[in-house]
Every structure is written in structure tokens, then in C-alpha cells.
Amino acid sequence: MASHGVPRVAETAQRTEAQRLEEERQIREYRDLEELISAKIAERQYTLEVLELTSKLLKKNPEYYTIWNVRRRLLIYGLFSKPSDSSSHLTASPNSSLTDTTKASSENSSSSTITTSGASTTTPQNPAFPNRGRNGTTLDLIRGDLEFLFPIMVKYPKCYWLWNYRLWLLQEANESLESDIARELWNRELILVGKMLVKDSRNFHGWGYRRKVVSELESPKLGGRSMVESEFEYTTKMIHGDKGLSNFSAWHRRSKLIPRLLDERNASDETRRQFLDDEFELIISAMYTDSYPYQQSAWFYYQFLMTTLTDYVGHGSITPNFTPEDRAEYVTRQLVILKDMLDGAEDCKWIYNALIDYTMALCRMEERKPDLDERQDCATWLAELRKLDPDRSGRWDDLEKSLRD
Amino acid sequence: MESLSDTKWDVLISGTGLQNSLLALALSRSGKKILHVDENVYYGGAEAAFSLQEVDEWLEKIQGDISSKPFRNASLWKAEASDGTAGLSFSRAYTLTLSPQIIYSRSKLLSNLVSSKVYRQLEFQAVGNWWIYDGETEASLRRLPNGREDISQDKSIDNRAKRSLMKFLKFVVNYENLTETWEPHADSGLAGFLSRKFQLSPSLQSVISALTLSFEPSDQIPVKWALPRIARHLTSIGVFGPGFGAVVPKWGGAAEISQVACRAGAVGGGVYVLGTGIKTSETVTEDGEQLSKVELSNGENVKTRRIVGKNTGHDLANLKSVSKIIAVVSSPLTSLFQSSIEGSPLAAVSVLVFPSKSLPEGTAQPNPVYIMVHSSETGECPSNQCVLYATTLKSDNSKAVLEAALSALLKSTEDDEGKLLYSLYYEQEQQASYASLDLAFNDEILQAVEDQWKTIMADDNGTLEGSFMQFEDREGMNNDDDDGDEGF
Fold first, then answer.
1. Residue B152 and residue A288: Cβ atoms within 8 Å?
2. Which fold has domain B63-93+124-146+240-249+320-429?
3. Overall pTM > 0.90
4. Nearest-CA distance from A176 to chain B in Å?
5. b/e code B392-410 from CB counts within 10 Å (16+ = b)
6. ipTM of the complex
7. What is the architecture of the domain spanning B4-51+253-316+438-457?
8. Among A320, A241, A312, A243, which Cα is nearest to A275's?
9. A160 at the B interface (CB within 8 A)?
């Protein structure tokens, strides 16, 4: 399993006879489990017993997505609480061993409604809480599955199926549970994803999941409010944490939050200008702490900031009301800063690249051709680029062509 | 019961300070007959921890002995009880330690405590923020940057300086392979080296020197001594979790380790006698074997093959001495412990560095001052109070310097709310090695223990059986304690 910064080692150790036999035994066990599950599903035994079997198998192989699908079916068709007129797809198996399990909540005798295939009424639904029964067992099952998933996710933090299944569970919660209960679950997810990102701050599954969780918590369906301020603060923390300056996901998320952040703050033009200044300062200081081999995350964020100036049609999100003069002034200033940065970092190809790109952009913005000095500078910078990054000579050829035109 | 003289001991260890206790731990599975004595009535020796009452007793002993070593010149001050502010609590509410050394994550001590299985009896807490005092600016305490991200957001460092500082950091974590850069300057002062080779300003020189915990000012710190210490600091961060690079055992620092180690020694069959020291010893021969015949201070005579830790007297010249203050403050000083790192544990210790000449004018301060702030999380004081451990090299006015530093600390935090409730001043002379004074646990101690262990184990067999500090769990032992994470 790949992790950042951890080299993968091929397993080429010789095996003893004992090890080989043990491995064969494990393979047999695995295959038997697989067959047993298939058989039971074919018989439509959508029971907790089979759920447990899938748990066993999935712990061994969380990538076996078919079994995750089996599990989904088990829950939807067999185990989740049904409305009391159960014209449901329940199994005929009378020994659905729900009563023996801890999953069935003890206070909730609606569990007995599931064992029988007809309507149930050992305890009539309390009219004041018509959904209590439904919430009870479904909630327990969802919670149980979320807990079941957690240690596996810790072990395999980059397995797509785990994240997907988790999301599916929570969406089921959205659909079948009361919104305040569902909201509680999503809140816990925020804490969980926070922990996963402390463990590996650059796991993009984690960041994607966080985006999803936050959007759910913000949604009016769950009585949510905007979390853009706290999420922005979170990206600040992550950028300033360990290896944060090269955390592409954190920078990326930050860039995505900024437009909405400024809108919600009702930011004036002056505030927006200050904000842009502060972000430039942030990224420039970050770049000054870098050295060969330079990291690209910071440069991508720099590029994002520059788009509000150079590519403002559709992207002028930070300073939409900048005049063309403002934009030109800012780009000019950045070119000075970049030239300055070069002094002491002559081996950084990103600076040369940025200098060329933004010199050309300035010309475009001012609707003019580059003057002689600019042409000469770009030629010098291009020459450096060719030296520093010879693998991309084709690209530099193209760049040269476009400079000439 | 057998008297001590009935046994022919393999080793007689005198003193239950940290080093000797670690030796007892190392020998606890060897089957050797160990007699471990200490002239004090408490464990820990020069690394012991005390309740307030025990401090009074210790004080009396030191003040009553002109030739006291290694502690001398001790005095105690207590605040007048005043209405309104909570004062000093009862004696046992405090565990003031003579050994608040921080233990870096990369120190071998931690892995030895784990492999010897005694780690489960210890609870380690994080050393969190490091601060540097800057008398020039308004907000006088600045965070000491621990790495690239800290440097990047430090507004007091301009961009070019950031780059130079990063160049130095990159160099120092790899210094062992970059000998051509520093070996020619191995004995030069750190300040000059940083200035010439890395263009670091005096302010940044202070920052880097602070990471060495050196008692000398930065122009007198030898480069070859400084580089490994800086590297250790920087590479320890994040090893056990985000935001910290060192730990301190709860309930009294190294004193607690001594206790636990001696306990292991006792479980291994060692016999412990407190309040007893070595009075005299002479070599005798018995059955062709050379033994030491020792008269203990309780009148008993014992025979042993080896003696460890007998006070051989100090033949060393140029022994360093430090001045120390242990102070209790009536505030939890929460601002010092706030972490900006996502996922970092609650820290129990904060380190404050006062570079030489940084204190307000009026106090001549040739040497740096270090204050380790221990919150009540360490178990050393009641909640809403802190214990401060201040250290500086002994000089004519070192007591005044320490007091000025404490006062500056209180002024720059919490709007001056914290009040001093208790202040114990003393001086400590180094014992055999500098390691005994080091503010961070010095692995030299472990090396010394290992050497002693090797010599002792080589008796009888001439070969070494077993590995140093590598033990299996005793039967039934690992059922008692919970899964031994370091309590973070």
C-alpha cells in the first residue's frame, strides 16, 4: 500500500514449506468464505449472520467491491427497518438471528418486527415518535458499519471502496433517518476525517471526503449553515502544519473556498485588495523557504492568485472590480518580486517560467507587443529553462515560437 | 531474615540517581545478586522529586553541610498568604523535581524504556511550544520556528533571511555527510560560523543557538558540539505525533524513571536499602577472588565483587556549575501552551529561552537563561498553577538573573496575572560528566550504563549474554497495564 514518502519494497523473501502451507490454508479459508457467502445470497438469506461473514471477508480483502455490494443489499433488503406495513423483500428464513445479536437495540423491540415477515406488532409504534422504530435499528446498523469500517480504513486509507461505502452509509442515513440524527452522524464524520488527515495530510481521499462532509453539514436539508470560514481556517492550519507548504490538497481547497469566503464576508473592494495582498505575501514567503528540488504546490497556488489579474474573465473572483490599470500595476509588481526572488534561486525553473508567462500576459493585458528589453529578458529566461529542464525541450521550442510571434 | 553480610554480592550500587537506577534496570534480568543502597531516605539521588515538606528536609541537609555536593547554596522564599489569591496548596499537592530534563524523541532512552518493558509504568507528556524572549519588541515572546512551515509564517524574519535560515536547516539535518562545510570550523564559535557560512543575523543566531540548550552564549558554543544537538532537535519533531519533538515523564521527570527502574531492579531480585551509604571499603582476597569489603553507614559489613557509584571524589578541574530556581506560579499560563498545529496533543511543558543580553537593562546577563514551564498536567502542582524550572550558568549575579527572567516571563504572559508563590534557589555542580547538568537527557548517560553493564555481565562468562535493555514481558505483567502507548 502506497504512502507518501514510504518506498515500496518488493516481497521476494523465500518461503519455507511451513509458510507455503500456511498460505495455502489461508487461501482455502478465503475461498470457502467466498463460496459460503455466494451460496447464502443465492438463497436470499439476508441476515446478520451473512453480514458477519462479509465482515470477515472484507477485513481480509477490502478491495473486493462485489462483497461491498452484497453488504449494501443485505442492509437495504434484509436488515434496515422497514415501515410497519412491510410488504418488503424480506427473506423467508425464520431463523434470522437478529435477537441473538447485539446490533438489535435492546430497548427497541421493533427488532422483532423484522424477524416475522408480516406486519409486526409486539409493540405498537408510539404515535408521538412514528419513526422511532425505524431510526432505532437502522441507526444501530449504520453506526455499527461505520465503526466496522474505521479500523479497516486506518489500515487501508486509500482504498476507494471503503470511502465509497462509508459515503453510501451516510446517504442511507440521510434518506431513512431523522435529519438531526443524520446530522449527528455527519458531525462525527468531520472529526473522523480530521483524524485521517492528521495521519496523512496529503491523502486526497480524505480531502475529497471532507468536501463532501462539509457540503452535507452546510445543506439546508440538515439544517446547516455555511462553514466556509472554519474550512478556510482549516486550510491555513494544514498549510502551516508538517510539510504543509507542499500540501497540494490544502492549497487547492483554499483556492476553492476563497470566492465564496469573500462573498459571504461581503468584502468591499478595499478588503478584497488587502486579502489579495495578504495571500500574495503568504505564498511568496512560502516560496522563499523552498529550495532545490522546488515544490510545485506553491507555484500552482501562485498561478491561481495571478488569474484574478491576468485571466479575469470568469476568474476574477478575488478582485472583480479591479480596473485594467490596477491589474497591470499588480502584475508589474509581481514581475519585480519574481526577478528579486531569482537572486539566490537561479536554479528554480518555476521562476523563469513565471517571468516569461506573466511578461507575455502583461503585454496582452496592455494590448501591446513586448518591447526590446522584454524580448531580451524572455530569451535569457528561456535559455535558462532549457538548461534547467532539458526534458521538456519540445515545450520550450513551442514557447520560443510563441514569443517570436 | 538473612542479613546483608551473608550474601556475596555481585554488584553493590551506591546511589539511586538516574544513571545507577538505569543500571539496576539493565541488570534486572541477569540473575546477579545486586545490592542497591542510597544514603538518602528517598529514591532518585540528584534527580529526585519532592513534596514541599521533602524540599524543606532536603534544604536543611544542604544548608547544614558546608561541603555539600553536588547541591549547595540553597535558599527558599514563600509568598505571604494574601486574601483573594489562592496561595500555596498542601505539601503533597506538589512534586518538585531536581530533574526536569526533556527527553528528545530521538533519544535512545525511550527505545530502551520500551524494549525493557518498563515504559508501561511511565506516562510521557509532550513538550510543546518553544519560545524565545526578545526584549526589543512589544510582544516579547516569539515562537521558536521548528521547521519550514514555522519559518514561512514568522513575520519577524524577512524573506531573504528565511531563505538563508532554510539553507542552514537543510545543512544541519544532514551535517554528518557534509563535513567539508563545518569540520574546518569544528572548534569555532557557533555565532561566527552561522554568520560567515550562512549569513544569519544575530537575531537568527540566537534562534539557532537556543535549540542547543547551551549554557554558553552563542559565540562560545563550539560548532561540533552544537550541530548534533540542533539536528537532534529538528529531526525529533513529529516523530511521535504532530507538533512536538520531546517528552517528559509525568510525576516528576527523570525521578519517576529512577523509581520505575529501581522497582524493576527489585522485581529482578535486587535488594534495596535506603538511608544507607558506603562508609569505607577495602579490597580483600577470598578464595582467590578479589572482592571489596564494604562497611555501610548502618554498621553492616558486606562483601561484593563490584562497586558502582562510590563517590570517588572530584579530581576533575573546571567543573561547571549552574544556578537554578524552582518556582510555583499562581496561574496556568495557558497562552504558553496553545498549539497552532492540527492534531497535536495537549502539551505539559513549554520551553522558554532568554538569549544572553536579552533581559531588560539593569540586569547584566552574559549567559542564556532557560525556563521550563510545567503545567499541572505534569502532576507536579495543582491545576491553575505552574511549576517553573529556571537554569543559567552560575556567576556572581546568576540568582538575580534568574529572578529577572522569571519576572520578565510573568510580565509577558497573561497580563501580569501570575504571581510567584514559592521560589527555591540552589546551585548544582556537574558530576562526572556534563550530562548531569544537561537540560535535555544526554545519551552519554546510557552509553555509560551500557559500558558498566557489559563489564559486569562479562564477569563469570567472559562473554556477553543477552542484549542491553532487551527484555521479554514477565508472565502476568502485561495484563495489568493498559496498552502501553505513551499516554498522548
1. yes
2. Guanine Nucleotide Dissociation Inhibitor; domain 2 (3.30.519)
3. no
4. 33
5. bbbeeebbbbbbbbbebbb
6. 0.82
7. 3-Layer(bba) Sandwich (3.50)
8. A320
9. no
